[in-house]
Amino acid sequence: MIRQFKSRAVQEDERKPMRKTSWRIVGALAGLIWLILQAGSAAPVPEMKPLGSVGQTPFVEGIDIPRTKPRSEPELEPEHQDRAGPQPKNSQARGSCVIPGALFEDREPFSGDRANSPAQDEDKGCGIAEPVGMIGVRQGSVEVVFPGPVLLSCDFSKVVADWLLLDVLPAADSLLGTQPVRVGSGPGYQCRRRNNQPDGKLSEHALGKAIDISGFEFQDGSRISIDEDWGRQGAKGRFLKRIHTAACERFTTVLGPEADPNHKSHFHLDIGCHGRDCTYIICQ
Hints:
284 residues; 3-stranded antiparallel β-sheet; 5 helices; disordered N terminus
């Protein structure tokens, strides 16, 4: 019995170094894991920056005077004159914007000033979250284009496309017996305040929600100028009256030659919010 007790004691003594080694390994692993966790928690985490607001200030009723008047005679820019014409991108657009029947180019979201569009430093609300360069519309074999891509918001472009396709084209066919091929217009987006004042509400142009239309050129070579043909007797005058009335059914603001002298030469169209519930319509 004494010999057996000593043998077990000897065996226990032999196991002690092994246990110490095991505990050292466990301790080293625990230390390594702690160092890894500390390093991960100390690494800088990029701060999430939300997309800046492109302006949600309601448009105040009144006159929105454009900085630059639209062209009175719609002409294609040289880059658009000698090409076959763009393809509709309503089902092939790279972005999420879909505009049935429209010809347009996808643009990157932006805020603030753009080239050739002076802006004040405080006009940080300017910009478009989902902009497009609207080229025109196409219906069957009829293609109607602007002088160049007009920078607008996706939502507003849909309203403009509907007006051209569903109102302007049928009116031209029934009253003039021809179809428009070009639309005279301003650039659309302009980072500025209403009436070009240094303070006050942002213009709807600063949000890509407004456009100025000055006239049309048709397949038969004839032209209609809002400046020259508004209020005249005959087919041209009736055509302008009809599309103006139709515009009041689609846009929230329609200002024409009878609104004030500043709009004698064009239609100002926008979808700004009027009234507390944005249901008030300005049609002049």
